[in-house]
C-alpha cells in the first residue's frame, strides 16, 4: 500500500523561559493511504505538536516529514501539502470564517482559484457528505457544536484532501454531537477512502481504528491494533490514560480468576463472552 | 441555605422573529450541602439556567431564591449574590488575565475589600484546594502553565471568593483523563470538607454517576428527569431519546438482561458490576 505520511526521526524542540522543551523526541511513523489511525496521550505528550507537523504548520528541528512524498520543508510545496492533508481543530468557532454555511465551505476552494460552477458542486458534495444539506443557507453561529464541527469538516472536504488530521474534534461536544462527528469521520474513511489521523482523549473513539498510537513525553510508547493496545490496562493507567469501562471490568474479572479474553473492547463483546460462561 | 427555583421562564429575543424559549416554567429546589449533577444536550437550557443562579441573566418570569432571597427582585444587590454563588464557566482559563497566578486569584478577594493579609490567606488556601504549589507558582504567569494548571488557577480564583454555592459548567471539558480525575477529585474533597453546595454540569455520565447525590436532566427548557443517579440512569429510553446516554457499565447490565442474564440493573460503577458478575458466576458453578 502507498504511504500517505512518513515521519522520519523527527525531533522538535523549542525554548520556553530559556528552558529547552523537547516536544517530539526522535519519532518515526508511517501512515498508509486509507488508514484510520488514532493518537492518544495525555495533555503535553506531544500529540498536537506531531499533528501540526503533518501539514507543515510546524517544521521539524531534526528529521523529515513527507506527505505523499512531498517534504514539508520544501517551501514551494507547502500549499500542495496543505491541500493533500487538511486539518480540523478542537473548536469549530476558530475554524469557521463566514456568516453563511455555504460561503464558509466555499472559502477554501475559492482560495484555490477553482471556477465558480465547480465550487458550487464541491459545496453541495461536502454538505451531503457531512449530512448538513438542509443548513446550507443558515448562519453557523446558530448551529449546535456538533453541527458546527461538521461544517468545519465540510470546509476541509471541499479542498478534496487525501488525508484529514483531526485534533480533538470532539472535546467540546456533548454526547450526541460527538456521535455525529465520529460517524462522519468513519464515513470519510470508509466511503471516501480518506486517510484519517484522529487525536482524542475519548478511548471509545479509538476502538474502531486500524491502529492506535500512544504518546508520552514526545515519544511513541505503544502502538498497535486497538485490541493489542487496550489489553495493556495497567500500562495505560500508568500513562494517565483511560480504557473503556468494559475493558477495565474484564481486566478486573480476569484478576479474580474468571476466564475472559484480555481484549474485550465493547459492551457486545462482554455480553457475548459472559453468555458463554452461563 | 438553599436554592429554590419557582416557575422560572426565560425567553431570548422576545417578540422578535428569533424568539426562543430557553427555560419553560421550571421549578425545583437544591438543598444546602447537596451535590447535584445537571445534564442535558447542547441547547437544552443548562447554561441559561446556571446563569440565572448568580444574576447574570434575569428571568422573563418566575422567582429564584438563594438563601430565601429572591434574586430576581429589583432591590437585590447582585454583588452580594455573586459572593455567595461562584460560577466556573466552560473553559474558565480563557478568563485569566493577570500577570501572575497570585494576582489573578487575588482579583476577586481584593474586590471584596479584604485586607492584604486575608487576601494572601485566601489565595494560598484556594491554591492548596486545587493542588497548585503556592511558592512555586504564585509569581509565574498563568499563560505559561499547562492547560490543566491554567484551568485550576481559574477555579482557584472562584474558590477564593469562598462561595456557599459552587456552580461548575463542564469543568473537565478538553482535559485528559488524568487531569479530569484530579479536578473532579478536588471538587469532591472540597465538598466533603466544607459541605458546600455544588452544581456540576457535565456531559460525562460516568463522572456524574461517580460523584453526585442527585441528577437533574434538562430537555428543551424543561426538567425532564430528576432523582438519584440510580433512579435516573434506569430511564435509558428517555435519556437516549433526548440525546443522552448512561454509563457504559450500566448499559452492559441492561444488555446482559436482554440476553437472559438477570443481574441488578441499577449498577453505576465498575466495582459494583464486578461484584454482581462474580456473584452470578460463582452461583452458576455451585448450581
UniProtKB/TrEMBL annotation, chain A:
The keyword Cell membrane applies. It is a peripheral membrane protein. One of its GO terms (cellular component) is ATP-binding cassette (ABC) transporter complex. Keywords: ATP-binding, Cell membrane, Membrane, Nucleotide-binding, Translocase, Transport. The keyword ATP-binding applies. Residues 2-242 form the ABC transporter domain. Its main location: membrane. One of its GO terms (molecular function) is ATP binding. InterPro entries: AAA+_ATPase, ABC_transporter-like_ATP-bd, ABC_transporter-like_CS, ABC_transpr_CbiO/EcfA_su, ECF_ABC_transporter_ATP-bd, EcfA_1, P-loop_NTPase. It is found in: Cell membrane. NCBIfam families: ECF_ATPase_1 (TIGR04520), PRK13648.1 (NF010167). Belongs to the ABC transporter superfamily. This is Energy-coupling factor transport system ATP-binding protein. It comes from Alkaliphilus peptidifermentans DSM 18978.
UniProtKB/TrEMBL annotation, chain B:
GO terms for molecular function: ATP binding; ATP hydrolysis activity; ATPase-coupled transmembrane transporter activity. GO terms for cellular component: ATP-binding cassette (ABC) transporter complex. It is an enzyme of class 7 (translocase). The keyword Membrane applies. It is a peripheral membrane protein. Its main location: membrane. Belongs to the ABC transporter superfamily. Energy-coupling factor EcfA family. This is Energy-coupling factor transporter ATP-binding protein EcfA2. It comes from Alkaliphilus peptidifermentans DSM 18978.
